[in-house]
UniProtKB/TrEMBL annotation:
Organism, scientific name: Secundilactobacillus collinoides
Molecular function GO labels: glucarate dehydratase activity; metal ion binding
Mandelate racemase/muconate lactonizing enzyme C-terminal domain boundaries: 186-286
Binding site for Mg(2+): 236, 267, 290
Record protein name field: glucarate dehydratase
Lineage of the species this protein comes from: Bacteria, Bacillati, Bacillota, Bacilli, Lactobacillales
Length: 446
């Protein structure tokens, strides 16, 4: 008979949180974004938690795991995950296109819902053996503290949209104010970076591009470099530029840009993996991606063709152990690991910290959207970004515990929404009536 705690329940709680009117190639972030929180309990009384993208399909996938895991000892977590992969609910008709054209309707195929279960089971397991998650995953702990990057965005004027964006909700410092204000210039981006640095101490920045003309965005990169000469600076237009434009822009403004993230993508019958390899040959610029290498099939040609240097292997796309396998391979081959993010709560923030703490090698500072959500924590003991870093707490598992009242409030916010899937064109159409997504046209260039 097993002496190990057994799983007694699985609960899926869809939640929503507030966001700013952030602009990206896919449009404008809506005032509320959705996520799914999974809570797994065992008969020792422990609660394990995980968080993943929102949307009805992902909620359904998570709910389908219940019968597969109830009654099993937590030490069987690897077998439980294997059974979930075999028997869990799946969305049909994946074209295999993935995110190479940033088609957000493909997120449900790219996101691996079982990563949230993996997180909750490892949280329980860590609590059982009384060790932080980073000590029991991958090759074990590689560092005690993880560097995060300051993720900057152009922001639309939410006063011009009849939508419930937060306004004047946080007057505690410059960041609290700046993150809700219209930002469409290089000076505005530098102001945003300074405010973010003041609150969080970031040493590196990433600017989300694909919004203005490439030349304008590179001017913002140059202004950031002048303001923060020691910072690593990255621009991510999500493949909006043509190969020729990406080469020309990088040549002109190259010194300010430490590396480029998905500067170009599929064109003229070539896949994004081929185009990025042409770009690298022409510029020698290090390249990061969360678009062309999001699974094991895509990673093979990407590495064969030397299309990328930095793979942002988000554990929500690869699973926790999958992401760390990517980290080990990249490290052995002299390449670099990092993680991509979408909007998220503090459960994901803790997951990024734990996975990154276990990623071997010289990793790149980790993406997080959380600074845009700060103040909406679901846990009382949420991890903090201080001096640009998150310290791994001396607590077992993820190192955080849900506050069920806060969770219920976020669930009520979710229930107030008609649509649960991300749709960046909805808010965008308030800015440019009739606006339609085009993966080769920056959002405001119409
Ligand atoms: O690096 C990233 O965060 C991305 O490439 C894509 C995401 O869709 C991001 O722009 C977002 O969530 O708004
Ligand atoms: Mg990206």
């Amino acid at each position: 008979m097993s002496v190990f705690p057994k799983i007694t329940s699985l609960k899926v709680v869809p939640v929503a949180g507030y966001d700013s009117a952030l602009l990206t190639l896919s449009g404008c972030h809506a005032p509320l974004f959705t996520r799914n929180i999974i809570i797994v309990t065992d008969d020792s009384g422990n609660e394990g938690i995980g968080e993943i993208h929102g949307g009805d399909d992902i909620t359904k996938m998570l709910q389908s795991y219940e019968d597969i895991i109830i009654g099993r000892p937590i030490t069987e977590y690897k077998n439980m995950l294997n059974d979930v992969r075999k028997h869990g609910w799946r969305v049909a008709n994946d074209s295999g296109q993935g995110l190479q054209e940033l088609d957000l309707s493909n997120l449900k195929f790219v996101v691996h819902a079982e990563a949230a279960l993996e997180c909750a089971l490892l949280d329980l397991y860590g609590k059982f053996v009384n060790l932080p998650m980073c000590d029991i995953i991958g090759e074990g702990r590689q560092r005690d503290s993880v560097e995060m990057l300051g993720y900057l965005f152009y922001i639309a004027d939410s006063n011009k949209m009849d939508l419930p964006y937060l306004k004047n909700d946080d007057d505690s410092d410059a960041w609290g104010r700046v993150r809700r204000q219209e930002t469409l210039t290089a000076e505005g981006i530098v102001k945003q970076a300074k405010a973010a640095q003041e609150r969080y101490g970031f040493r590196c920045f990433k600017l989300k591009g694909g919004v203005l003309k490439g030349k304008e965005e590179m001017k913002a990169v140059t202004a950031l470099h002048e303001a923060f000469p020691d910072a690593r600076i990255n621009l991510d237009p999500n493949g909006a530029w043509s190969l020729d434009e990406a080469i020309a822009l990088t040549k002109k403004y190259g010194d300010a840009l430490t590396y480029a993230e998905d500067p170009c993508g599929p064109e003229n019958g070539f896949s994004g993996r081929e185009i990025m390899s042409f770009y690298k040959n022409a510029t020698n610029k290090p390249v990061a991606t969360n678009m062309i290498a999001t699974d094991w099939k895509q990673i093979y040609p990407s590495l064969m063709m030397k299309s990328v240097d930095i793979i942002l292997a988000d554990p929500h796309f690869w699973g926790i152990e999958g992401s760390l396998r990517v980290a080990s391979i990249l490290n052995d081959w002299g390449l670099t690991w990092g993680s991509h993010s979408n909007n998220h709560f503090d459960v994901t923030l803790a997951l990024y910290a734990q996975v990154s703490a276990a990623a071997p090698g010289n990793i790149t500072p980790i993406d997080t959207h959380f600074i845009w959500q700060d103040g909406q924590q679901l846990c009382d003991d949420a991890l903090q970004i201080r001096n640009g870093e998150i310290k791994i707490p001396d607590r077992p598992g993820l190192g955080i515990n849900l506050n069920h009242e806060k969770l219920e409030k976020a669930h009520q916010q979710y229930l107030s929404l008609k649509n649960h899937d991300r749709d960046d064109s909805m808010a965008m159409q308030y800015i440019i009536p009739g606006w339609k997504y085009n993966h080769k046209q920056p959002t405001l260039v119409r």
